[in-house]
Amino acid sequence: MILANGEFPKSKRCSDILKNSPFLIACDGAVASLHALKFKPSVVIGDLDSIDSHLKALYNPICVSEQNSNDLSKAFFYALDKGYDDFIFLGLNGKREDHALANTFLLFEYFKFCQKLQAISDYGCFRVLETPFILPSLKGEQISLFSLDFEAQFTSKNLKYPLNNLRLKTLFSGTLNEATDHFFSLSSIPNSVVLVYQKF
């Protein structure tokens, strides 16, 4: 599990994830919030521009000084190199909107290296999936779909506003939908990678 330096999650769902994570990587700016709540990260990583000196001494963080990637990517590739292949991200959103967008869409890049990715907040969950796929849902659950493939034609099942060989020509074309059953599915021609948001 990787904790980024966005809005610190407060829900019981997210707290349970933090408590039960067998390997918790904290981006350096997130350490203060973890420390205040008595969570101890397995590893602290980043360029160390956002961590106080007393926390540096306490946690002995790993410094990755190159500036071609952000701390989230440094944490992800560190874990990938250690053999981890199932990721939950917390704290991607909040504070700065530009960071939130960048962190969320970085999931598309991470999917090239690992296909088990979830970004969870107090409000919902992002997943990156390749079509075709089926996801469990609740009737009335809010669903948004984001695609960077503006040529693929998508077809859905069990969404209130169905997609029928539809191209998602903008980033907002697949947003603000709703599940109508206990699952929904998405297929496309050709197969395509999609960012799926489900609101809790």
From TrEMBL:
One of its GO terms (molecular function) is kinase activity. The keyword Nucleotide-binding applies. Residues 16-116 form the Thiamin pyrophosphokinase catalytic domain. It comes from the Bacteria. The keyword Protease does not apply. One of its GO terms (biological process) is thiamine metabolic process. Residues 125-195 form the Thiamin pyrophosphokinase-like substrate-binding domain. Its EC number is 2.7.6.2. Keywords: ATP-binding, Kinase, Nucleotide-binding, Transferase. InterPro entries: Thi_PPkinase (IPR006282), Thi_PPkinase-like_C (IPR049442), TPK (IPR053149), TPK_catalytic (IPR007371), TPK_catalytic_sf (IPR036759). PANTHER family: THIAMINE PYROPHOSPHOKINASE. This is Thiamine diphosphokinase. The lineage of its organism: Bacteria, Pseudomonadati, Campylobacterota, Epsilonproteobacteria, Campylobacterales.
